[in-house]
Structure formats: C-alpha cells, structure tokens
Amino acid sequence: MPKTIQIINGDFASQQPLQLAPGIKAGFPSPADDYHHDSLDFNRDLIRHPEATFYGRVVGDSMIDAGINDGDIAVIDRSIEAKEGDVVVAYVNEEFTIKYLDLTHKDEGYIELRPANKNYKPIRIDADDDFEVWGVVLWTIKPMHSL
Amino acid sequence: MYGIIDCDNCYVSCERVFRPDLNGKPVVVLSNNDGCVVARSNEAKRMGIKAGTPYYQLAELFPGQKIAVFSSNYELYGELTGRVVDIIRKEVPAYFRYSIDECFVYLDGMEHLDLKQWGETLHKKIRQYVGMPVSIGLAPNKTLAKTASYFAKKYQGYRHCCLIDSDEKRRKALKLFPIDEVWGIGRRYAAKLQSMGIHTAYDFAECHLEWVRLTFRNIVIERTWRELNGEDCVPNEQLANKKSICTSRSFNGMVADFPTLRTHVANYAARCAEKLRMQRTVASIVGVFAHTNPFREDLAQYYNFQEQRLLTPSSSTTTIVQAATDVLQKIFREGYQYKKAGVIVMGIGPNNAIQQDLFDINAEQFEKMRRLDAVVDRINRLHGTETIVLGSQQYTRKDGKGKADVFANAIKHDFRSKNPTTRWSDIIILK
C-alpha cells in the first residue's frame, strides 16, 4: 500500500488559553495548588448568555417601588422566556420601556405591563396588538458613588 | 455535510434590532458617504428599489413613499454579526466565517441528527438571542449548501432551513436554480453560459465534463460543475485564499491634490491594519487604487491600481500605511479630479505563524510595533475610534492652518444609528 503524507493546514484564527498548568515551575510547590478555584467573575457568573445580553439605561421613576431608579443600568437577556411577574423590556409606541410583565389576564385576551409606582397606569396590550417582549431584565446596576 | 448560514438583509436586520417598529416596513442602508443604497429590506425590494440607487434619486423615484434610510454603521453590524458567529460556533465542530454576513459550517459527526430540525432550531435561537433572521442551507458540499440557502431564503415554506440530502432533491433544486445565482460562477461566465442556452444550474450540471474543461479551462468552474453533481471538492483554501480586506470610499466631493489623497489612503490603510489585528491575521501584499468619476464624462479620466509585497507579513498600522503611501506615490498623477480611492490587503495568514524574510529580521523592532499597536487599539476601543492616529492620517484644517483634530468628519453619515452594543453612551433608554 502506498504511503502518503497528508498536509493538514492548522487553523490559528481561534485561540484557546490553557486553564492551568501547575506542575511547571521551579521552587517550592504552593500548598494552595490542589485547592485552585477560578476567581468570581461577574462577566462569567451574571451574564450567562453573552450573545443574548444587552444593556439599557433607566430613565424616569415608573419602577421606583421595585428599587429601579433613574440612571440605573439594566442587564437584559433575550434568551430567556419571560414569565409572569418578570421585569421585562418591551417596545411600545416606538420606545423601550421597563415594566413588570403581568400575564394574569392572558385568558381574557390581554396582558399588562405594570409600573411599580402608583402615579403611573398599567399599559394594556391586546392580543391583536403588534407586541413583543424584547428581553428579560436579570440585574440592575446602580451607581452609589459618582466617580 | 456542510452548511452555510447567512443573515437575511444583514445591515437592515441589524438596524431593526433596536428599531422593532421598522419590521414590515421599507428600510434601506446607504454606502459610505451616504452615496447609494447597499442594503434593502424585502419591502424595499418589492417597492422596486434597486441596489446601487443613488440616495438623492430615492425621493424622485418614489415620491410620497415612506422609506426609512440609514447611513451604514459597520461598528454595529460587526458587533451583532459577531454574536451570530458566537452562537454558531458553539453548535458545530468547525466553522469558517466567509464574510460579514455568511458563515460556513462543517457538520461532520452530526449526521445522526435530524439536520433540518437542527437548522430550524438554530434559526429560532439566533432570531431570539440577537434579533437577526438567518437562512440556512445544508448539503453534502459547499456549492450545493449555497444553492440550498437560496431556497431557504426565497420560500417561506422551508422555515429558514433547506436541506439537500438526496439525489432527487439535488436535481429538483438545480432545475429551479438560475445559472447566474450559482456560487463560483461569476457574471461573465454566467453570461457566456446563457448565450449558449444554459439557463439553470441543472442545464450546466448535465453538460459533459470534457466540454466544461475545454470551454472554460478554469479549475474553479470545473469544481463548481463537480459540486453541482454531488462531489465534495472545493478546498477550504479556495475560501481562505479569496480573503482580502478592502477599505475604500467615494469622496464627499472630488480630490485633486496629493496631500489630501494621501491622508485618505493613510486612513483606509490604517483601517485595514486594524481589521487584520481584530481577526489576528497579517497581510503580505498591500494594494492601492485611485480613480476619477466615470460618470463625469466632461472630465479627464484616470484609473490605476498597483500593489507592493511586504518583506515580512504585517498587521502594523505604521508598516501598512507606509506601504500604501509608497504605492500611492507611484500611481498618483497630477491634473485629475479623483473621486474614489481604496486600500486592499491580500495574502492574509494567521499572525502566530509568520514567515520572516531573511533580510528583514529585526525582532526587537517587530515586537515594539506589536506593542505600540496593542496600546493604540486599546485606547481607541476605550475612548472611541480614532482617538489616537498616525500623523499621516490627520487632515489639514479647513482654514489651512495646521491639522484638524476631528478625523471622522471626512465621511458623511447623516443618518447613522447609535451603537448600543459598543458604547456606554449609546445604550438603549428604558422608560
């Protein structure tokens, strides 16, 4: 059987860093090596679907009783199905709005976007309205100190 | 098994992610400098808006009709399509990003799955996660995968994914597939085939191989013929070798003097270098073209393109701008009104497998450049593009006194959308 050598081109476009190689070092081994654990990382732990994560800035006080204030940053995940009671981002009247999703009237043919401020009225969405929940708010980040 | 996944009306779909009210409405995106239409929504296509229509003609051609118009915003398109690729690469054993809106995938080892179902689910996932509609074509080779994606896009019944996995489906698809849509057959060859009475991909696939060889004497055409007949023979290198990066623009007005033209070219070259670094590649050839306005028949016409090989492949802004400036020096002729210029970098390869030229070894200098570029990229990422540029990228101030401090002003973009995924100042407002 003839022997042939196949030349395989490497793909160097993507890189994979090696996580940990504790054996290769000079000097006294650290006793902590066996207990290695990755540091806490907000980017990894709070943002579970980076491809589906977007950010928004809250304007106004319509969600103030939910602890969401003017100037807060909302972390929005589009990969999650919105459930009853979730804080969601919806696109209504050519604007993004942040509200509670109220599905309790779904069987009666409408849903509501509920504010968390008694000075605002809920937004009623009827079944035949062109409407889509844009994303689910997972976290809000609020500035506590002006930098 | 191969797949091609491409974004439907990519630029328009990117704009719609943050403007859901524009779904179902005519939307167009303009070329750089707001020159002409480069992307159209299906509604805009149905209205009869053609690709390449100059912007100023839209109002004349479609009076009283509401058309949403955007300047191109490549920062946004690059970020959102990057998300699409990130989703895809977690689903497949291997992939190859072919262009900003197309990605080839290799599905070896996935044959046990219901691939049609897999494609439909992937479409749904990308649609939900990023808001981007894609079409997916799946077939035993790349040319047929491209064919399948044409049908996935054209007919809603496929639910965004078309699979060609039998000879019967292959024949049926090719009979309905116009020859000028076939991947790998350029406009010139398509016209030649049509003049010979070959109108569908099926007509072409049924020709004898000997005839194809003698008529065209072209390996790419022969491979296309083989792939239409079910063979898998377009090598991955054919995709990769095609790779070149081009940054070119029509000027806002005309340019006759060398210093201004050189500044434009320096900026295009710098942009090419930045793109190379973003994808961790280097280029070995730098080409430059410049030409006058072919529509102004009353003016003297000139076109020239030349290229220069770099001793060591590079992605350094300094090196690429220097090479581009050298080439421009050679092709520039006094006395013409230039309308467009561009920089093309070719011979692209990975940046961690560089062949150094024996006579160009200066490791220390090389490392210095690499570090300089890394710092510049970081600053420009943090503080906005073009915070730091080379002196040669700076335009002369309008009053002629010294250098201008705003560079992006050279490009017209009256209808540019925000960048909610790349700038904190632009994130969406939640009321």
CATH class designation of the largest domain in chain B: Alpha Beta
- Which percent band covers the strand fraction of chain B? 15-25%
Sheet of most strands of chain A: 7 strands, antiparallel
Shape of chain B: globular
The tally of strands of chain A reads 7
What's the alpha carbon Rg of chain B, rounded to whole Å?
23 Å
In the CATH hierarchy, the architecture of the largest domain in chain B is: 2-Layer Sandwich
Strand count of chain B: 14
User: Largest protein interface?
Assistant: A-B, 31 and 29 residues
So, the CATH homologous superfamily of the largest domain in chain B?
A: Reverse transcriptase/Diguanylate cyclase domain
CATH topology of the largest domain in chain B: Alpha-Beta Plaits
Distance between the termini of chain B: 47 Å
Low-confidence stretches of chain B: none
Describe this structure in words.
- The complex is a heterodimer of chains A (about 150) and B (about 425).
- Chain A is an all-beta fold and about 150 residues long.
- Chain A is about 5% helix and about 30% strand.
- Chain A has 1 helix and 7 strands.
- In chain A, strand 5 and strand 6 form a beta hairpin.
- Chain B folds into 2 domains: about 1-140 and about 405-430, Reverse transcriptase/Diguanylate cyclase domain (Alpha-Beta Plaits); about 245-395, Dna Ligase, domain 1 (2-Layer Sandwich), CATH 3.30.1490.100.
- With about 425 residues, chain B is an alpha+beta fold.
- Chain B is about 40% helix and about 20% strand.
- Chain B has helices spanning about 10-15, 40-45, 55-60, 75-90, 115-130, 140-155, 165-175, 185-195, 200-205, 210-215, 220-230, 235-240, 260-280, 315-330, 365-385, and strands at about 1-5, 25-30, 35-40, 70, 95-100, 100-105, 135-140, 160-165, 245-255, 280-290, 305-315, 340-345, 350, 430.
- A 5-stranded mixed β-sheet of chain B has the order 5-6-1-7-8. In chain B, strands 9, 10, 11, 12 and 13 form a 5-stranded antiparallel β-sheet that branches.
- Classes of the chains: A mainly beta (about 150), B alpha+beta (about 425).
- The interface of A and B includes residues 10, 11 and 58 of A.
- Strand 1 (about 55-60) of chain A pairs parallel with strand 14 (about 430) of chain B, so a sheet runs across the interface.
